[in-house]
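Sample 1 of the test manifest.
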Amino acid sequence: MLVVRHVGALRAAVAAARARGERIGFVPTMGALHEGHLRLLDTARQHAESVVLSIFVNPLQFAPTEDLARYPRTEAADLAAAAARGTQIAFVPGVEEMYPRERRVAVVPRALADRWEGAVRPGHFEGVLTVVLKLLNLVQPDVAVFGQKDLQQATLIQAMVADLDLPMRVVVAPIVRDRDGLALSSRNRYLSDIERAAAAAIPAAMARIADAFLAGEMRASRLEAIGREVLGALPIDYLAVMSAETLAPIERAGAGDYVAAAVRVGATRLLDNHRLGDPAPIAS
Ligand code: AMP
């Protein structure tokens, strides 16, 4: 695996792969890699001969009050794991490399970013889309792979690629979960043992909602109430049934719509979601 830290070296490495006739698959991450990230690399591999991983903790998408400074950084382990998973190129730029001058232009999302994560984290998706567009322009992949774990982010990236006519395919890969169902996340390592145990209520809530929908409950208010009951005293930023296309709240759920939640466990905000009609992520 080639590790490159500069834009010029990245472009040269990708050009060499292209000259060999290889398709390029791309997986952008913020590092602290877990099995969820590694499965995205596997998915990229299914669509491309050459897989590019990026590791960049993007300051633009963190508010001043958020965890930028303490976001986990495990570069050596990340590179070893990515290499073992058949990655050809790892792009690991510093902040100066990505933002060498004052920014004059940004990608500003519209209504799709106003609710849910966007409401709790103003400016977050502008930061995400701006860095993702830069990375997509640097790598120019045939296929870029994102996780369903970050449903609103994946939906916005698909919207950006469609609305701005980016010449690539976006693949959204399913959520990878821990043994008790908790969605893997780099932020799970912030949890104490007691918090980690309490966090299991989040996938349990998704599972109860999934089963209630499969048993015929279509009223969003009922499905949401079932989820809230399972979460008990955990503070909920949002738990809502939403349209897959617009992420707007709906009153009656159909197969393919989503339930998504952001829940606080101690000082850590955890996300989860489930596509209604799919089997429950764990036994409920
Ligand atoms: P992050 O490093 O948190 O920015 O995530 C990088 C990519 O990995 C994003 O596309 C995430 O949606 C995806 N991802 C994070 N956690 C998971 C998971 N548990 N399962 C699948 N994909 C994930």
